[in-house]
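Sharing in case it's useful to others searching the archive later.

Someone asked me privately for the predicted structure of Membrane protein, so I'm posting the question and my answer publicly. Question first, with the sequence:
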Amino acid sequence: MKAAHLVEKSKDVKGAKPAAQETKFIDILSKVATVVAILMYVSYISQIKNNLAGNYGAPLQPLVAALNCTLWCIYAYFKQQRDWPVFWANFPGIIFGLITFITCLH
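And my answer, the predicted structure tokens:
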């Protein structure tokens, strides 16, 4: 009954999508964005391999990425309603960013 009320109420706004449809879109978007963010940080693996082979990259960018991801994970975890897509999208960035940073040092 409550969900039906939300759908009816959201139709009142000109051009607005029903709340249920918007919620489904946001749910799908959060999952896709989480996967893409994880892929972005997994892409550090090639740089880590290069660093271990002696072809060192710059350490600043992965260090800042790890710091940024740490802050976003803290934000997502400590919100009143935890934001798991933001947390899981950034958690791999902490790990891969730090590994990349450490292997950049020579």
